[in-house]
Amino acid sequence: MSDATDAALLSSINSLKDKRAKYQRVKNAISSNSLSYKRNLSNLKSYIDHCKNLIELIDGNVGYAYLANFRSKLQEDKDTLQEYYDYCTDANASFVDLYNTLDTKISQLNTSISQKKSAYNDGKPLWEWIW
Fold it and tell me: Superkingdom of the source (predicted)?
């Protein structure tokens, strides 16, 4: 192969390696913060359901009218917790999707790098190969 083709292949290989390293750093950051898997928020969900049941109990019994202030405050807190729960589950799903996407892209980059190395090494003596 010509020197220009070799230089282009080396440049492409280095560019792909840089991109792979960047993706790997982001993937490692997601993993090190324990965001690469679906988080269990069942305790929060069960607490929200418990609050909902209490609100329904207060609404269902006329004798509990004296708890109107408690009921309204509990409703506000339950709504806030529900928003937090929804946000956490959506954010966690996004991080898991990003982690999986990065994993796929890294695999594709590894394949591309291997193909370009093979093209570069084709016809060269062993001591000039890129490993």
Answer: Bacteria
